[in-house]
Design brief:
The protein has about 180 residues and is mainly β. The chain is built from one helix and seven strands. The chain has one helix spanning about 140-145, and strands at about 25-40, 45-55, 80-100, 105-115, 120, 160-175, 175-180. The protein is elongated and about 80 Å long.
């Protein structure tokens, strides 16, 4: 495992002696749309969707040191980076009904999801797999196809959030006043 450790040091000290980094950027695309359907002169059905993908190019830059050195990474396979693909989805369906000249009812259903799967940079890379390093008796999958986890005084958390929302509102307007 020590064969891939960096050798380009700026001094001979034991700590804070390596400077490195990787180019970074994003590959983004998004599509958004809205459709309105007039069911009757006083009823409207609306649908809104937004979907996109953001990929970090070439990969997400992590940190192997305190937050004051964020972005400084060790070379593969020791880097704290990963392949991150963020896929937000937002959908909304609304039914609006004008009951009278002064009363309107709106019923909405919404869904949003913020998924962010992160995969290891060494998953399936020949020479960087745990089994290539002579580690045996591992289960099939990521435990045997990734470089063994290394930590340089840091931790990482991954989260995905999704929600389903329903809302109903009735508005009443009379001259300058409006009640909800």
């Amino acid at each position: 495992m020590q064969a891939a450790l960096p050798t380009n040091y700026d001094n001979t000290g034991l700590v804070n002696n390596y400077f490195g980094g990787v180019p970074s950027g994003y590959d983004n695309w998004e599509i958004a749309g809205r459709a309105d359907f007039d069911l009757t002169p006083k009823q409207r059905l609306s649908y809104v969707i937004a979907y996109g993908i953001r990929k970090n190019v070439p990969f997400t830059v992590g940190t192997n040191s305190p937050s004051s050195f964020a972005g400084v990474v060790l070379p593969l396979p020791y880097t704290a980076g990963g392949y991150a693909t963020i896929t937000p989805v937002v959908m909304d369906v609304e039914h609006a009904w004008q009951i009278s000249d002064h009363i309107t009812n709106q019923l909405k259903f919404g869904f949003n999801r913020f998924g962010q799967p992160i995969t290891s940079l060494t998953d399936g890379v020949s020479g960087d797999q745990a089994t290539d390093l002579g580690i045996t008796n591992l289960p099939a999958g990521q435990a045997s196809t990734d470089f063994p986890g290394t930590s340089f005084a840091t931790t990482t958390a991954v989260a995905a959030v999704q929600a389903l929302v329903r809302a109903n509102s009735v508005s009443m307007s009379r001259r300058p006043h409006q009640l909800k």
